[in-house]
Design brief:
The chain is 32% helix and 23% strand. The chain has helices at residues 14-26, 39-45, 61-69, 83-93, 105-108, 111-116, 131-145, 178-182, 254-264, 281-286, 297-305, 312-319, 336-348, 390-407, 422-433; strands at residues 2-7, 29-34, 51-54, 73-76, 96-98, 120-122, 149-161, 190-194, 197-201, 211-215, 219-225, 243-251, 356-368, 371-382, 415-417, 440-444. The strands form three sheets. It has a seven-stranded parallel beta sheet, sandwiched between helices. It has a seven-stranded mixed beta sheet with strand order 10-11-12-7-13-14-16, covered by helices on one side. The protein has a two-stranded antiparallel sheet with strand order 8-9. Helix 4 (83-93) links the parallel strand 4 and strand 5. The longest helix is centred in the C-terminal third of the chain and has 18 residues, at 390-407.
């Protein structure tokens, strides 16, 4: 009997565990889940005889390697920085590997050895990256197959709070790793292609350069650019497009308010703040403002960033209790980003019964004959509750489906890869539709950013 090993069982793995637990008997495989905290896995898997739960120290080489040696396919749900520990063992022992994370340079370097051993190391098979790749490639290849020439591609994704659980002025709650949200956009300039012109946005301007989107039944959204939209130009076969842009979706107004944290320096993760353990929220805000013996923290902040008292942006800041002076935030030796994350988690965590929402939107501009055309494609998924979230569903299900197909030999092309080939994305997308993960496509007038051919 073949066996799957899943390393990591955090709150975002509910659908992954549910799918593999339910398929273990039907498809005749064993399934082992490893984590320090197995409460979620125990709750979902129950007493399924095909499922084994283990607490293992993954930094203990002997324990980890013995586990990997005893299984046929490894799913790493660890933080991305730890995937290579698992990947090297999987390669040494000849095991397939599946992750939802971006392919790192270190992972890519394993490709020749992975191919030589006939192994599948499938990465970027969650939501973003994952469903975005697969849905984009399906439509792009369909357009090309019908003789079309791609001119324009934009892709946007966001994890948000569902309308029925939207009860704050930011219209946002954490549905994934909060640290990633706080650090979003850092680490380099954002770059993309607009009407044949390369464009660059430094971090300090990122949240003031947004696009607007209208999604049927759900209203207006905004999006800020991802760090490197050009990364997939060759992979997607879009070498000749004039516009290529990938972005992150938020509700309108979020980015302008988030920019306050960026301008103050609160998202910086590069240094430790002195006396952070004793700081109140008010102390934390004041630490980034000029000294004044007479003005309050509120006045200093409004003056410093030119915010009117009746501006909704100001109301957003007040809603976070940023000026509270009654108790310490309580983090020792913390960076500004860690302090900000702790403040936001108090206000933006999903509560019992809350539902989240995933939104994905693609724009495909292309030439067909002597006509320019456009297809807009959108996906909206609403979570069931704070355990079975839309984020867990759209990350976990594609990963689980691909893992099982690799185990059964239905996906077999070897190498370190992402899901951009039809033999991967077609069966995975088809099965996702059975779970309500289905795109709505519509033909719209071609969106031309530069009809008069100005400099741009």
């Amino acid at each position: 009997m073949k066996k799957i090993l899943q390393i990591g069982a955090g709150k975002s793995t509910s659908y992954l565990i549910k799918y593999l637990s339910e398929h273990a008997e039907k498809d005749d495989f064993g399934y082992t889940i490893v984590d320090k905290n197995l409460d979620l896995a125990r709750k979902i898997a129950g007493d399924n005889p095909r499922v084994s739960l283990k607490t293992v120290d993954i930094f203990d080489d002997e324990q980890r390697q013995q586990l990997i040696r005893d299984h046929d396919l490894i799913i790493s749900m660890l933080p991305a920085r730890l995937h290579m520990i698992v990947a090297r063992d999987a390669l040494d022992f000849g095991k397939h590997l599946v992750t939802a994370s971006y392919i790192s340079d270190e992972m890519k370097a394993l490709d020749p050895e992975v191919k030589a051993k006939g192994l599948v190391f499938m990465n970027e098979i969650g939501l973003d990256p994952g469903i975005d790749h697969m849905s984009a490639m399906r439509t792009i290849n369909d357009i090309k197959r019908k003789g079309g020439e791609m001119l324009h591609f934009e892709s946007f994704t966001g994890g948000l709070v569902a309308p029925e659980s939207d009860d704050n002025l930011w219209h946002y709650k954490f549905t994934w790793n909060p640290r990633n949200v706080v650090l979003a956009g850092q680490g380099g300039v954002s770059k993309f292609l607009h009407e044949g012109k390369f464009k660059y946005i430094p971090y300090h301007r990122l949240f003031r350069r947004t696009e607007f989107l209208e999604i049927d039944d759900y209203g207006r959204f905004e999006a800020y650019p991802n760090r490197d939209s050009l990364k997939y130009q060759k992979i997607y076969g879009l070498e000749n497009v004039r516009t290529l842009y990938r972005g992150t979706i938020r509700r309108v107004g979020f980015s302008r308010a988030w920019n306050v944290f960026v301008q103050l320096g609160m998202t910086d993760d590069s240094y430790i703040m002195e006396n952070s353990a004793s700081m109140t929220k008010r102390d934390f805000v004041n630490a980034f403002l000029p000294y004044s013996p007479s003005d309050s923290v509120e006045l200093k902040l409004r003056y410093y960033l030119k915010i009117d008292q009746d501006d909704e942006l100001w109301l957003k800041l007040e809603e976070l209790d940023l000026f509270d002076d009654t108790r310490p935030i309580g983090l020792e030796n913390a960076t500004p980003a860690q302090m900000l994350q702790k403040i936001l988690e108090e206000k933006w965590s999903l509560q019992p019964g809350d539902k989240d929402m995933i939104v994905m939107y693609h724009k495909f501009g292309y030439r067909s004959g002597d006509e320019n055309k456009q297809i807009d494609s959108s996906l909206v998924v609403i979570g069931e509750d704070d355990t079975y979230t839309a984020m867990a569903k759209t990350v976990g299900l594609p990963l689980a489906i691909a893992a099982l197909k690799i185990l059964k030999g239905e996906i077999s092309k070897p190498g370190v890869q992402l899901p951009v080939h039809p033999d991967v994305y077609e069966p995975v997308l088809d099965e996702l539709e059975q779970y309500g993960i289905r795109f709505r496509e519509k033909q719209v007038p071609y969106l031309h950013y530069n009809p008069h051919h100005t400099m741009g």
